[in-house]
Amino acid sequence: MKKIKIKNLTKQEFAPYGDVIEADEKTDYMLINNGKTKRFHDLARVSALGTNARIAISIFRSKPFSLPYRLDFMERHPYGSQAFMPMSLARFLVIVADDENGKAGEPKAFLAKEGQGVNYYPNIWHGALVALDKETDFLVVDREGVEKNLELYDFEDAYWIEE
Amino acid sequence: MKKIKIKNLTKQEFAPYGDVIEADEKTDYMLINNGKTKRFHDLARVSALGTNARIAISIFRSKPFSLPYRLDFMERHPYGSQAFMPMSLARFLVIVADDENGKAGEPKAFLAKEGQGVNYYPNIWHGALVALDKETDFLVVDREGVEKNLELYDFEDAYWIEE
Predict the structure, then answer these.
(1) Which domain, by its residues, includes A152?
(2) Global pTM exceeds 0.90
């Protein structure tokens, strides 16, 4: 099986696939609430496409995985973005791939550090949710609507995602 | 000044004002990702009204307050819901009020425990963000659009919010 090395998650490398959601003190923010709160504004491109489409907020409670992680399949959501943010300080694994004629290409693996979340753009191949350190609750912002919004692709040969 | 006692946040009491966002194992969930993830689905009524309205994801980094908390004003957002979920295990204060002829009525104060978030419905009077234990980052899901989406109401006499 092919091995894929995990890299740190950065906005630059993740940009083709989605948004890294994080509060970066070096970027602009607004001071609100009499200076008690910093607003890091509008960090993700959220979208809900199709019939009766709307944005929903859910919680995913994910059991942890250990590394190396065996990646057998990827998924994508043609009708909407999907954002994940841990509800506690926790790392998680972010796996994406370019599309190659309707199939997921070679995966890229990123480690989201504490305080980072991601927003996958519509139709971007990504791995299922992979908590690492502990059972982790994630706030999820994604799309509800009429059309089926899940495609799966099974790799012929699985990948090992490793540090 | 009038004193308001803080109560525990429950879905039942908060229902007229918005959603309590929490993973309640007693409620229905779907098992996804080969049984590794529980999906607590569609926990909040998200809305974005007005011209070119859309849902945005932001982070609010809030300095902590101590109790009793002095409540001088409330705010509301006529054109959209606004959801708050801590990105670490932290409690925060949730203050709402009924509308009385365009003014905020007597406030109600709730303590959101670790793992709980809230979604305020459009046009619901609520207090500014009040972190309690530590500087806390919140994931915020609210509305972007053309129309001004903030109304403030200053109380003639402030309230003390206390345990």
Answers:
(1) 2-162
(2) yes
